[in-house]
Design brief:
By secondary structure, the chain is of the alpha+beta class. Helices cover 31% and strands 30% of the residues. The longest helix is centred in the N-terminal third of the chain and has 14 residues.
Length: 250
């Protein structure tokens, strides 16, 4: 891609985007699309200058923006690397259920219950910004604390993404960690809603719990750096075994 092609890729209204922004967006698309994976080294500044037909200062400004977004980390004398989940600014604010239980001293594992393609409901379509009825992938995982089932959750996302997610080791990884670490999709933000309810017969059977007992439901929508939803999850937790803790820092 040369300088001319960069300009032609910009929106026709309002004039072309600055060259550094075009370089930044091209590299961001490669990272978010999986062309560059966590830990990969980006091409050198000289290679990027030749590829995009821009100046060194333009390349450095683009890399600085990507680093500010938490997508890359620059190491003096070595180059720039796609950041791994848990480093930089890109990781969302949540700790997964399995990780949280292990931190509290419990044995925790997951089990994949199902992976299927379904038609999106009104709620799923709204959260993923899709038409109602659009096919989506659904991955359902049951989690155990000290060998007692206590959380069951379903994650909806693009069918191809769900297929890749179902192949991850969800016995040891939380879904959010698998999406970032295994699939290389970085989250920019996570919207969380928590509500209380009662277990119906089906949910009670899955969780070895009494029908009508208290349930904590956590709904999360994860958005990427391109401002597009990555995944929507509904997680149902036994209220006698799970609480929800958040630490806010100024």
């Amino acid at each position: 891609m040369d300088d001319a092609s960069l300009r032609s890729a910009s929106p026709p209204m309002g004039g072309p985007a600055p060259l550094f922004a075009q370089v930044r967006d091209a590299l961001r698309a490669e990272i978010l699309g999986g062309g560059l994976m966590p830990g990969d080294r980006l091409p050198s500044e000289s290679a990027l200058i030749a590829r995009f037909g821009v100046s060194r200062i333009t390349v450095r400004q683009a890399l600085a923006e990507l680093q500010s977004d938490g997508l890359v980390q620059t190491v003096n004398g070595k180059g720039s690397y796609v950041t791994r989940p848990g480093r930089g600014e890109g990781r969302g604010p949540l700790v997964g259920v399995l990780e949280a239980m292990r931190r509290r001293g419990h044995r925790a594992r997951g089990r994949l219950l199902s992976h299927r393609t379904v038609r999106s409901t009104r709620t799923v379509a709204r959260e993923l910004d899709l038409p109602v009825g659009e096919p989506v992938g659904a991955v359902t995982v049951l989690r155990y604390r000290d060998e007692v089932p206590f959380v069951v959750g379903t994650t909806w996302c693009a069918p191809a993404l769900a297929e890749r997610l179902a192949r991850e080791d969800l016995a040891v990884q939380d879904v959010a960690s698998a999406i970032e670490a295994g699939l290389g999709l970085r989250s920019a933000s996570t919207k969380v809603r928590v509500s209380a309810g009662l277990a119906d017969a089906r949910l009670a059977a899955r969780l070895d719990y009494a029908a009508g007992a208290a349930i904590l439901t956590i709904r999360t929508t994860t958005t990427g750096w391109d401002d597009r939803p990555i995944a929507y999850s509904e997680t149902h937790c036994r209220a006698d075994m799970m609480d929800y803790r958040v630490t806010l820092r100024a």
